[in-house]
Amino acid sequence: MALDLSIDFGFNGLFRDNPRPGFSPAVVGKAPRPGHRLTIFAVQQVKFCPMSVGRMVGKNLLKFRHGPERRESISPVLILVFVCLFQNSNDGNTIKIQTPRQKPVTKIQVSTVSRSAPKNDRQLRENMDFSFVTERIIALYFPENVTPQAFHQGHGQAAHLLSTKHANNYMVFNLTEPRRSARSQHARVRELNWVPGLAPPLDKLCSICKEIETWLNGDSHRVAVLHARGNRERIGVVVASFMHYSNICGTADQALDRFAMEKFLDDKIQELEQPSQRRYVDYFAGLLSGNIRINSAPLYLTHITVLGAPAFEANTEGVVCRAFIKIYEGLMPVYTSGVHRITPGTRQFTVNVAGDRRNQGLQLRGDVLVKCYHKHPNQREVIFACQFHTCTISDYTLSFTRHELDSAAYDLRFPLDGAVEFHFSASPTPRLPLPAPTPAVAVDSADDPIVRWDSYADLLAGEHDSEMDHHGECRC
């Protein structure tokens, strides 16, 4: 055990006899034995400012020496000598501070702490990240591999801390799957989750920001807790979106909060890794600011061109990839292509959407998800995916480079210069002749169950609990 000493000397108290505006002394160090003398030398002039306990303003602000009082060979701007007498008392270790011409001016309680935190506390910190985004917005994050017991204990500790400081004035906004462990510990929990692995729908981003704003504006004492488990980027998406939202819809006194949110993103999130999440935050910011004009006209997808040949299997039977595409509108499957057998040296291939629909383009509206898979004998694997919203499309050709595609951005099996182009028409009938099939790419039928399987139908139907108890158009 050791005494950790962190003292913030008050300006008015210590400089009552000889006030020197612009100077603030402080000492940070380990306390000596009771009854021992401690001589403190202030050796640097600094601007006076409120100091938080345990932090120093300026470099080499103070030097201290245990033992008999003696001068050091220094040339300070100002030298102030204080004698600290350490005594034991019934209420713990106390410090009496006095100057040569003063009686003791203050009495400070020194807490006795262990050199290392208890094992349970260390494990709890490893399993939970409790961070302030702003004074009234808190981020509560748990890693995916946290045990059920640690998850429950973490929420218990967070609930105790929040209720002690904020009573009933806090709301937990859950951004991941609903969990009984979270609801059982907190009085107010609002479920704002979306499908794992995807960016939130554009109207979902808008409603999340409005709900947070409504809660905070209801009372100046309220705080919002953003909770996520397994994917810290969900908190990043919401914080980044709310930062843009408050910049347009907030008040002038929220400027400092926006700076704090930006700092939180830099420190805790850095850059969002998933391209579609970055895109949707940019969509949201552009629509709020007016930089993106809403396109309400219907769009009909005629064909998709994939530039470059993904290599997802060895060159067996003269094939390096068996690609097929699925298109979802609002998570509902609306199109499945045949399986395209990509041969070595293929520079591009085209998925003729309108051709598969008797020369009728596929009408799309709102949030669109496109996923390209490689078909294995008994399973499938994502080659690339992308999400976009039709209200943000201002041209009839929409292009995404490799680094703008989910999965492909970090997969070297997708060509470094690869890209995907979506071609649209303003009417069901294509405005231009449809491209001819790629001669080197044969297309198999899409009757295989692996190809037909749709995986988004019931993702949000039930609740998920780590205890294995299953309870299971832009308007911004």
What does the secondary structure layout of this molecule look like, with pairings?
Elements: E1 2-8, H1 11-14, E2 26-30, E3 37-42, E4 62-66, E5 81-89, E6 92-98, E7 106-109, E8 112-113, H2 119-127, E9 129-132, E10 137-142, H3 148-166, E11 170-174, H4 180-185, E12 189-191, H5 202-217, E13 223-229, H6 233-249, H7 255-269, H8 275-289, E14 299-307, E15 321-329, E16 332-336, E17 339-342, E18 348-351, H9 353-356, E19 362-364, E20 367-375, E21 380-389, E22 397-401, E23 419-425, E24 442-444, H10 449-452
Parallel strand pairs: 10-13, 11-12, 11-13
Antiparallel strand pairs: 1-2, 1-8, 3-4, 3-5, 5-6, 6-7, 9-10, 14-18, 14-19, 14-23, 15-16, 15-17, 15-20, 17-24, 20-21, 22-23
Helix pairs in contact: 5-6, 6-7, 6-8
Organism: Polyplax serrata (Common mouse louse)
Protein name: Tensin
Domain C2 tensin-type: 296-427
Note down, in words, how this protein is organized.
The chain has 476 residues and is an alpha+beta fold. The protein folds into 3 domains: 2-113, no CATH class; 119-289, Protein tyrosine phosphatase superfamily (Protein-Tyrosine Phosphatase, Chain A, Alpha-Beta Complex); 299-452, Sandwich (Immunoglobulin-like). 23% of the residues lie in helices and 29% in strands. The protein contains 10 helices and 24 strands. It has helices at 11-14, 119-127, 148-166, 180-185, 202-217, 233-249, 255-269, 275-289, 353-356, 449-452; strands spanning 2-8, 26-30, 37-42, 62-66, 81-89, 92-98, 106-109, 112-113, 129-132, 137-142, 170-174, 189-191, 223-229, 299-307, 321-329, 332-336, 339-342, 348-351, 362-364, 367-375, 380-389, 397-401, 419-425, 442-444. The strands form 5 sheets. Strands 15, 16, 17, 20, 21 and 24 form a 6-stranded antiparallel β-sheet that branches. A hairpin with a 7-residue loop joins strand 6 (92-98) and strand 7. Helix 5 (202-217) packs across helix 6 (233-249), helix 6 runs antiparallel to helix 7 and helix 6 runs parallel beside helix 8 (275-289). The longest helix has 19 residues, at 148-166. The chain starts with a strand and ends in a 24-residue tail after the last helix. The model is unreliable at 1-119 and 459-475 (pLDDT under 50). One of its GO terms (cellular component) is focal adhesion. Residues 119-291 form the Phosphatase tensin-type domain. This is Tensin.
